[in-house]
Amino acid sequence: MRTIGNILWLILNGFWMAIAWAFLGVLLSITIILLPFGRQCFKLANFALWPFGRTAVPSPTAVTGSTIGNILWFIPGLFLALGYAISGVLLCLTIIGIPFGIQSFKFLPLALFPFGKEIVSARDLRDDIGIARASRQ
Q1: Is the separation of the CB atoms in 107 and 32 below 8 Å?
Q2: In whole angstroms, how far apart are CA 124 and each of 20, 47, 83, 94?
Q3: What are the two backbone dihedrals, phi and then psi, of residue 63, each rounded to the nearest 5 degrees?
Q4: Are 35 and 24 in contact (CB under 8 A)?
């Protein structure tokens, strides 16, 4: 089911948003100073292509620089967040598109504040939660 969702997401929204992320990543990577911003864009372009079965979680290795990066990122992130908001509303207008609209809305905070996040498999996340619960018992 996850693969079918990812294929439909790719056709409906993922391809275009991944192109937007990659284009912005190329523009930002041209200068050495903005290379960390370009790297974030490429990471999120990959996530935008195939999001079902993966999730963004706070990175345990995030440093103070991620807060500064998020503050500097906010203005360009508004344009990508606006794209996700518009596509989310359009996808939610149809009954079949509601899961994809919800997925699009999940990208909103990630588009605005991408630093300090890590993309992980949902299966790995469930395994980590199960291990933590078992160790508490």
Answers
A1: no
A2: 28, 16, 29, 32
A3: -115, 180
A4: no
Residue written as token pair 């149809």: 94
Between the alpha carbon of residue 32 and those of residues 12, 99, 103, 113, 136, the distances in Å are: 34, 39, 33, 21, 46
pLDDT by residue (tens digit) across 44-57?
899 888 888 888 88
| Token pair belonging to 51 | 């999001």
Q: Which residues contact 28 (CB under 8 A, 6 or more apart)?
A: 34, 35, 37, 38, 41
The 10 Å Cβ neighbour count of residue 36 is 16
| 11-36 pLDDT tens trace | 888 898 899 889 989 998 998 888 88
Amino acid making up residue 113: F
Q: What are 118's strand-pairing partners?
A: 57
Q: What are phi and psi of 115, to 5 degrees?
A: -80, 145
Burial bucket for residue 58 (CB in 10 Å: 0-12, 13-18, 19+): exposed
Interaxial angle between packed helices 65-92 and 15-29, expressed in degrees from 0 to 180 and rounded to the nearest 10: 150
